[in-house]
Predict the 3D structure of the following.
Amino acid sequence: MRNRPRHDCENLMILEHAILNIKPDQNAEFEACFEKAQQIIASMNGYISHQLLRCIEAPNQYLLLVKWEKLEDHTIGFRGSPQYQEWRKLLHHFYEPFPEVIHFELFDSASKDG
C-alpha cells in the first residue's frame, strides 16, 4: 500500500480537546474574558491555532480545540508558565464542573503496514 504524503506540521501536531461547561447566565461574561485569554494562549511557544465552539443543544457548553506542535508545549510549557496563572484567573471560575482536558494525535492508517 502506498503512503500518502503528510505535511510536517501534521506529523507533529497535537490537538487539545476540552468541553467547557459554563455556570448558568455567565456566557456573555465568559466570552468576553475568553477574548482576552485567547491572546495569552496564542503567544505561547508551540501554539498553532485554536477554536472555541458553542454547543447548539446546550448553550452553556463550549468545545475548546487547541493545536500544539507537541504535547509538552501544552502540559509543561503553557501550564508551567506565569501566563497560565493569568489564563486561570480569567477563565477557571466560570467552569462547573472543571473540564477534563485530553489530547489527540493524527492517526494515519495509510502509514501502517498492511
Observations:
- The CA atoms of residues 44 and 81 lie 9 Å apart.
- Confidence is low (pLDDT under 50) at residues 1-10.
- The two ends are 7 Å apart (CA to CA).
- The beta strands are 14-21, 47-54, 61-68, 101-105.
